[in-house]
Structure formats: structure tokens, C-alpha cells
Amino acid sequence: METVVSGIRSTGKLHLGNYYGALSNFVKMQDEYNCYFFIADLHSLTTHPTPGDLGSTIRQVVVEYLAAGLDPEKSTIYIQSDVPEVAELYLYMNMNAYLGELERATAFKDKVRANPDNVNAGLLTYPVLMSSDILLHHGTKVPVGKDQEQHLEMTRTFGNRFNRLYNVDYFKEAFAFSYSNKLVKIPGLDGQGKMGKSNGDASCVYLSDEPEAIRKKVMRAVSDSGPTEMNQPKPEVIQNLFDLLTIVSTPDTVSHFDDLYNRCEIRYGDFKKQLAEDMILATQDVRNRIKEIEGDDEYIKKVIKLGAEKAGASAQKTIKEVREIIGLKKLY
Ligand code: TYM
């Protein structure tokens, strides 16, 4: 059975981008594959969260994983820092990751542009830690959104380079995966292209948002003054809203608003109301389960402990083998 590995950083509440880009695929994959899903708390350290915030966001992501339907009986659900072997593999993999290729990574360049005062080494070597997460369990399928595709390419480069350097056929190649065949990019509500926490709360609909909050955000979403000619192509901000509608609504609803748009008869107020109500419906079950699970400390602890044990066993085996391949043998 193929092994699946993926994670989400503990940087806050999960939004529809995380859900449709990653988490909804995790849930489906657990019936078909040997799955490892983790909370990437080490990756979230690049932005220096306070210890208090870090602890509560890690817990929040665990709750949201479970609320979305991840099942600890089917998948290994763990916290990245509970498996310190990943930091050791990261050290080894850093020895054959080169400055030029790390600097060329699109996500790195975007982060440098957005926050030039915090270009730390952890940010530069982010893809090396990510490759270590995957290689640690010999993952071959990695459910992620479109923005992570390049990191998967880099993971293959690092794994293949390790194999060549030590003349082994040890690490397998991992590929980004989505059930929809195409990796998805969920747009934000702010006309900025991608839904993301770094674009601010107004851009994101969170899985835990109450219906009233969703209505408010959607009604304020960036749009324009409306089409002026029949069948004119949609500008990006409007296409983004249609893309969101496609994800949460039925094809009939989408084609209804599409027709209205093409006939220059669309009223954005009605369109946004429909979008908000369909988002509320699409997130309803997860929202309710978050409320059920978040107070259940015992259950959460049990899940995390079980995950740490299962992921630890797989990680320890890999690290032992990697040390042998590298030549780090005990001399005593
Ligand atoms: P993070 O926390 O930035 O994102 C987690 C997942 O959510 C997806 N995602 C989106 N997908 C579609 N549209 C969006 N607007 C959107 N926003 C976020 C991301 O593509 C991602 O799948 N680097 C990873 C975390 C990670 C990881 C790994 C993933 C660390 N190690 C190993 C896979 C395997 C990340 O992007 O986190």
C-alpha cells in the first residue's frame, strides 16, 4: 500500500483553502492508503509565534483535523515536534540542498518580498524540512494545494541526490496529489488570488466561522461595478468569486449566475447571499464537530499520544537506516 504524508502548519484556524486544498483530500485518502497527517509546528516557527499562541494553535489544528473526519484508527495523526527524528533527517538533508536552488524557490521569494526583515535560515531551508517530513515515512503521495507543487519537486531532487551520493535506492519519489487531478488554489475574498492567513482575516473563511461571520465577510468581498457588455470575460476578482461558488454550490446554481452575468443581469448582492449560504452549509458539519471535540481534552491527548507512538516507530526505523547508509556507525 502506498504511503501518504502531509501536514498543515499551526499558524491559526484552518480556512477553506486548507480544507479544499489539503484536508478534504486527507479525509478521503485514509480509506485507501497508509496515511501520516501531522501538524507542522516546527515549520510555523519561522514567524516566531509566542509559546502560548503556538500551544493553542497546535491544539486547534488537531481539533479541526478530527472535526473534518480524520480518524486516529485509520491514519497516524501526530504533531511534528513529537517526532524529533525529523530534525535529525533535516540536518542530513541540508548537506545536499544548495543555496542557489533554495533561494530560487517561489514560496521563499514571496516570503522575502512580503517580510524582508525576517529572512531567517529556517525560511530558506523550509523545503528541506518539508522533504524530511515526507522522506521520513517514505511517502509517495502528498495531498497539498497548488502552492506546494514546487516543494514536492524539491523533495524529489533532495531524495534522488541522497540516493546518488550514497549509491543506494533508498528514498522514493513523492508527488503532489489531489482527487480532482489538478492541484487546487482557492481564491480569497479580497481579490488577492489566494485565500491565506497572511492576506488577513477578511480574505479567509475559517472552518470555525459562525454563519453570521461568513455572511459579513462574503458581503464585503471585493467585486466590481458589474458587466457592461453581454458575454464579456470575467475580471479576476469576479472569476474568484465564481470559483468559490463552484466549490461550495451545485452546478445548477453556478450556471444560473453565469447566465445572469452573461446577460448583464447579475446582482452581486444576490450572488453573494447565495455564496454565503452555500459556504455556511458546506462547513456546517465541520463547524459543529469542532464545538463537540474542542472541550474533550482526554480524547485529544489520547489521539496525540497514539500518533506520536506510531509516527515515532516509523521515524526511528528510517533514521537508523539513514545513519547506516551515511556511515554514522557507533564505535562503542
Ligand atoms: P500551510 O499551512 O501553508 O498550508 C497547508 C495546506 O493548505 C494548502 N493551502 C491551500 N490550498 C489551496 N488554496 C489555498 N488558498 C490554500 N492555502 C493553503 C497548502 O497547499 C497546504 O497543502 N508547507 C506546507 C506544510 C508542510 C507539508 C509538509 C505539507 C510541512 N511539511 C510535508 C506536505 C508534506 C504548507 O503549505 O502549510
TrEMBL record:
<keyword id="KW-0547">Nucleotide-binding</keyword>
<dbReference type="InterPro" id="IPR002306">
    <property type="entry name" value="Trp-tRNA-ligase"/>
</dbReference>
<keyword id="KW-0067">ATP-binding</keyword>
<dbReference type="InterPro" id="IPR050203">
    <property type="entry name" value="Trp-tRNA_synthetase"/>
</dbReference>
<comment type="similarity">
    <text>Belongs to the class-I aminoacyl-tRNA synthetase family.</text>
</comment>
<dbReference type="GO" id="GO:0006436">
    <property type="term" value="P:tryptophanyl-tRNA aminoacylation"/>
</dbReference>
<keyword id="KW-0436">Ligase</keyword>
<protein>
    <recommendedName>
        <fullName>Tryptophan--tRNA ligase</fullName>
        <ecNumber>6.1.1.2</ecNumber>
    </recommendedName>
</protein>
<dbReference type="InterPro" id="IPR014729">
    <property type="entry name" value="Rossmann-like_a/b/a_fold"/>
</dbReference>
<dbReference type="GO" id="GO:0005829">
    <property type="term" value="C:cytosol"/>
</dbReference>
<dbReference type="Pfam" id="PF00579">
    <property type="entry name" value="tRNA-synt_1b"/>
</dbReference>
<dbReference type="GO" id="GO:0004830">
    <property type="term" value="F:tryptophan-tRNA ligase activity"/>
</dbReference>
<dbReference type="InterPro" id="IPR002305">
    <property type="entry name" value="aa-tRNA-synth_Ic"/>
</dbReference>
<keyword id="KW-0030">Aminoacyl-tRNA synthetase</keyword>
<keyword id="KW-0648">Protein biosynthesis</keyword>
<dbReference type="GO" id="GO:0005524">
    <property type="term" value="F:ATP binding"/>
</dbReference>
